[in-house]
Design brief:
Chain B: Residues 469-492 are annotated as: Disordered. Chain B: It is found in: Cell membrane. Chain B: It comes from Micromonospora musae. The structure holds two protein chains of two kinds. Helices cover 40% and strands 21% of the residues of chain A. By secondary structure, chain A is an alpha/beta fold. Chain A has two domains: 3-119, Response regulator (Rossmann fold, 3-Layer(aba) Sandwich); 132-227, Winged helix-like DNA-binding domain superfamily/Winged helix DNA-binding domain (Arc Repressor Mutant, subunit A, Orthogonal Bundle), CATH 1.10.10.10. Chain B folds into three domains: 10-168; 226-319, Helix Hairpins, CATH 1.10.287; 327-477, Heat Shock Protein 90 (2-Layer Sandwich), CATH 3.30.565. Chain B is built from ten helices and 14 strands. In chain B, strand 11 (446-447) and strand 12 form a beta hairpin. In chain B, helix 5 packs parallel to helix 6 (225-282) and helix 7 runs parallel beside helix 10. The radius of gyration of chain B is 55 Å and the shape is rod-shaped. Classes of the chains: A alpha/beta, B alpha+beta. Chain A binds chain B through residues 10, 12-13, 15-17, 19-20, 23, 80-81, 83-84, 101-106, 176-178, 189-190, 192-194, 197, 208, 212-215, 218-223, 226, 228-229, and chain B through 263, 266-278, 281, 305, 308, 312, 316, 321-323, 325, 327-328, 337, 341, 359, 362-363, 366, 479, 481-482, 484-491.
């Protein structure tokens, strides 16, 4: 199955989650601090990181930023509260998704699977549809999952890429936050729209010439987001 | 007294008091001085006129023989007249000099002069004051006796100069009065300011204190009664502030304690929750009691998790950190999704007109609907129904059942925390916070001063009815891009 790096300082929580995820068939590597987690990533590989935000020493946000700066490894954060600034800050630091403690093992399992599906390739376009699309200065290769802007490749995390593919699949059509949550995050029901907002912000930072005046991913107030029109 | 007008403001009262005091004093002083000075001036004028007349009369050429001839009379009259003084000389019916004067002589005056007195009289002609002096020329006999000669002399002496002096005095008095009135008003204003400013400050401070600003204090100036009042006010405010601070601190401590306990419980619960799946899966394979025990631990872990989550939710409402995540929602679709997600679709009859859009927090709506419908399914009797109505500003969602309804004694308490209508009800049915949380969630939605609401009641036809009212377009302070234009960035 997949390799999960679990960074959690409480030993019982660590043990419990390791036990639960192992029984789901994951290979779980559990460490207690952010420093250990970053060190582990240098020596071994992982498919997904489950990261507690409240850590002694280097906090979860910093760990999140460092992992994000080195690659597109998916990150799911464990947070104590769902309503507070932790979630927003974690998403801004680059987390792909979050779960609230105490978390049901099957919920965490579902989020891990969803995030891993985003990393994997999308089934190639069927029929004669061209795989490479051009939108202004942007080129999106749906088969190779490569995005270039003015010829230069843009490094997108899996969730950002999925969001871009979803939006650009129907240029000019408005997609609601809930629609995007279902399509990209696979939250079948009442997801947190802040996930979408945070991801859109990150996407804009990478794609747009001016994040404050976006061209590609536009906000439609009261409804959601729209790709273009260019 | 009813009809009497009473000045109300302290400032006006002080002003009137000072003004009347100033006016009265000035009027008395100026009036008395005026009358005195006027009398003195007139008296002096009169005396000097009389003396002068007597001296002049003495110098008149002695009458050689009586009766005098008309020429004698004319000569005497001419001697006694000059620029603005005219004289009349009479002797037993024959006159010489100012003939007009003879018309003005009264019999009483003539009688008095005939008897040898020197008479004077003040009179005015054409607005000009005059002094009329009358006397009789005396003769000295060869033996040295003086006797009246029957020759009467009247002289009119102008008092214009004196009148001018008196007029000047009067205008000086008026001027003094006016100045002192102005001065009195100024003094009154200053005095009123001195008294009114502290009083007004006290009023303002008391108002601020009443509005809840307990740190309000007054500056204590001087040692008078007003300073005493200010000191008392400060003392009272300080005591009040200390007690309120103490109460707030106690309340905050209690709330923080609940929040801390809830959060502390979360870590062990996370570990326990993580392994409940293991317990559930292994329970059937465990022998007898161990299997039952494993299932019980798993079940209660879920209940405890729910209680702790609800407690944390409640502490968030109490501390004011609960935030709305607003979204444009098709309410009918959202309600259907809530029912579908919990497998209640077949047990609930719905009347949900499609296309009812509202801007609200979909997760909080889900919590409310799940609580209300869950309650109805547990405690009421089927059929449980949900119906939605809307006007331009509000959506109204009603959840009803056909059970026995709510006891009227219970009604005021249904949204209280941990309130159990039936003390025998087991705790596993809920945390006891569900309706309280639903109520808070409803109130969190607001449009201006108006807030969402959740109310409980009984249907006259039987059964409990819960009515949820939420604003369709509540203010949204959370999402900054909601304040921007319809489409940001791109072309519209």
């Amino acid at each position: 199955m997949s390799r999960v790096l679990l960074i959690e300082d409480h030993q019982t929580v660590r043990d419990g989650l390791q036990l639960a995820l192992s029984r789901q068939g994951h290979t779980v590597d559990a460490v207690a601090t952010g420093e250990q987690g970053l060190a582990r990533l240098r020596t071994t590989t992982a498919d997904v990181v489950v990261l507690d935000l409240m850590l002694p020493g280097m906090d979860g946000f910093e760990v999140c930023r460092r992992i994000r700066s080195t690659g597109d490894l998916p990150i799911i954060m464990l947070t104590a509260r769902s309503d507070d600034m932790d979630v927003v800050a974690g998403l801004e630091a680059g987390a792909d998704d979050y779960v609230v403690k105490p978390v049901q093992p099957r919920v965490l399992e579902a989020r891990i699977r969803a995030v891993l599906r985003r990393t994997g390739g999308e089934p190639g376009p069927s029929g004669t549809e061209p795989a490479v699309e051009r939108h202004g200065g942007l080129t999106i290769d749906r088969a190779a999952l490569v995005v270039t802007k003015n010829g230069a490749p843009v490094g997108l995390a899996p969730t950002e890429l999925r969001l871009l593919l979803e939006l650009s699949g129907t240029p000019g059509r408005v997609l609601s936050r809930q629609q995007l949550l279902e399509a990209v995050w696979e939250h079948a029901y009442l997801g947190d729209s802040r996930l979408v907002d945070a991801c859109v912000q990150r996407l804009r930072a990478k794609l747009e010439d001016d994040s404050a005046a976006p061209v590609y991913v536009q906000t439609v107030r009261g409804f959601g987001y729209r790709f273009g029109p260019l | 007294m009813k009809g009497l007008w009473r000045p109300t403001g302290l400032r006006l009262r002080l002003l009137l008091a000072f003004a009347s005091l100033g006016l009265t004093t000035t009027a008395v002083v100026a009036g008395v001085s005026y009358v005195q000075a006027r009398n003195v001036i007139l008296q002096q004028a009169q005396d000097s006129a009389v003396i002068r007349l007597k001296e002049q009369v003495a110098q008149v050429t002695p009458i050689r023989s009586l009766p005098p001839t008309q020429a004698d009379l004319r000569k005497i009259a001419a001697d006694l007249s000059d620029g603005d003084e005219s004289a009349l000389v009479t002797y037993h019916g024959s006159n010489a000099g100012d003939e007009q004067l003879s018309a003005a002589l009264t019999p009483q005056l003539q009688a008095a002069v005939s008897s040898g007195q020197v008479v004077w009289q003040r009179r005015a002609t054409d607005g000009h004051p005059y002094l009329l002096i009358g006397t009789q020329l005396m003769r000295t006999s060869d033996e040295g006796d003086r006797y009246p000669s029957g020759l009467e002399i009247y002289r009119l002496h102008s008092l214009d100069a004196e009148q001018a002096s008196v007029d000047r005095l009067a205008s000086l008095a008026w001027l003094t009065g006016g100045l002192s009135l102005v001065l009195a008003v100024l003094l009154a204003l200053i005095a009123a300011q001195g008294v009114l400013r502290p009083v007004r400050e006290l009023g303002r401070a008391a108002r601020r204190l009443g509005d809840g600003d307990l740190s309000t204090r007054l500056a204590v100036r001087g040692t008078d009664e007003l300073a005493g009042v200010a000191r008392t006010f400060n003392h009272t405010a300080e005591r009040l502030q200390r007690q309120v601070d103490e109460l707030r601190r106690l309340e905050a401590d209690a709330r923080r304690f609940v929040a801390d306990v809830s959060h502390e419980l979360r870590t062990p619960l996370t570990a326990m929750t993580a392994v409940t799946d293991v317990l559930d899966e292994e329970a059937p394979r465990l022998p007898g009691d161990a299997g039952r025990a494993a299932r019980l631990v798993s079940q209660e872990t879920h209940n405890l998790t729910r209680l702790v989550n609800d407690l944390i939710e409640v502490t968030r409402f109490d501390s004011g950190t609960a935030a709305l995540a607003l979204d444009e929602v098709d309410v009918a679709e959202a309600v259907r999704a809530t029912l579908r997600a919990r497998g209640w679709t077949d047990q609930v009859s719905t009347d949900l007109p499609p296309g009812t859009l509202a801007r609200l927090d979909p997760r909080r709506l889900d919590v409310i609907v799940a609580n209300l419908v869950g309650n109805a399914l547990r405690h009421g009797a089927p059929p449980v129904s949900v119906w939605l109505r809307a006007d331009p500003d509000w959506i109204v969602l009603t959840v009803g059942d056909r059970g026995p309804g709510l006891d009227p004694q219970v009604l005021p308490h249904v949204f209280d925390r941990f309130y159990k209508a039936d003390s025998a009800r087991s705790r596993s049915e809920g945390s006891g916070l569900g309706l309280a949380i639903a109520w808070e969630n409803a109130r969190l939605h607001r449009a201006g001063a108006a807030r969402g609401s959740l109310a409980a009641g009984n249907d006259p036809a039987g059964g409990a009815v819960f009515t949820l009212r939420l604003p369709r377009n509540p203010l949204d302070p959370q999402r900054p891009d909601a304040a921007r234009a319809g489409v940001t960035g791109g072309r519209p």
